[in-house]
Amino acid sequence: MPGFIDLADAKLHLRLDETEEDMEIQRLIDAAAAHIGSIYGVVAAQEVNFQIDHFAANVRVPYRPVDGETIIVRYLDALGSEQVFEDFRAYARDGWTWLQPKVSKAWPSIAPVEGAIAITATAGYSPANAPADLVHASRLLVDHWYNNRDGTDLPPAVDSLLNHYRFRRV
Q1: Cβ atoms within 10 A of the Cβ of 92, count?
Q2: Does pLDDT of 152 surpass 90?
Q3: How far apart are CA 12 and CA 147, in angstroms?
Q4: Among residues 97, 98, 120, which one has the least CA distance to residue 42?
């Protein structure tokens, strides 16, 4: 999994010149990206896939940012055959991407099974275009885990930097 920072950036932050721990530092970079993605929904550049059980009026893509042109909606129809639904529109609201049927269209009928809908898209930031708060939070996580290998609590600064990315219903 790519991260919001690269190995050179992490080593500069850690003030390390040697190479013997490069694999461990890379694992920490990957872990920082996974942590940020799972808590805040912001991901490093990648293809994302998720499944839902039914269509809501508006479907939120739980990752950000999303390239709306890359979204593919697949579903199992009432007979259990996989279909592609193209009559949707993607729109952004409050930093999240939402899907809804195009005007005068409706979501299709689906099979009554878990995970009947699969959505794929390209999402995320590369290290070159990641916002400064994601970069700094990644550095803090890598530094914390590198220097505190006993599982101590995360630094509060990480949540302070990233809390505004959380999804909130209003």
Answers
A1: 13
A2: no
A3: 15
A4: 97
Report how far residue 143's alpha carbon sits from residue 137's, in angstroms, rounded to the nearest whole number.
Answer: 10
Q: How is residue 112 written in tokens?
A: 């009554």
Instruction: Show me where the domains of the chain are located.
Output: 7-43+127-165, 46-123
Q: Do residues 158 and 32 make contact, with C-beta atoms less than 8 angstroms apart? A: no
CATH topology of domain 7-43+127-165: Hypothetical protein yqbg (1.10.3230)
- pLDDT, residue 1, reads 55
- Evaluate if residue 52 carries a pLDDT over 80: yes
Rounded to the nearest angstrom, the gap between the alpha carbon of residue 58 and the centroid of all alpha carbons in its chain is 19
DSSP assignment of 34-61, as one string? HHHHHHH-B-BSEEEEEEESS--SSEEE
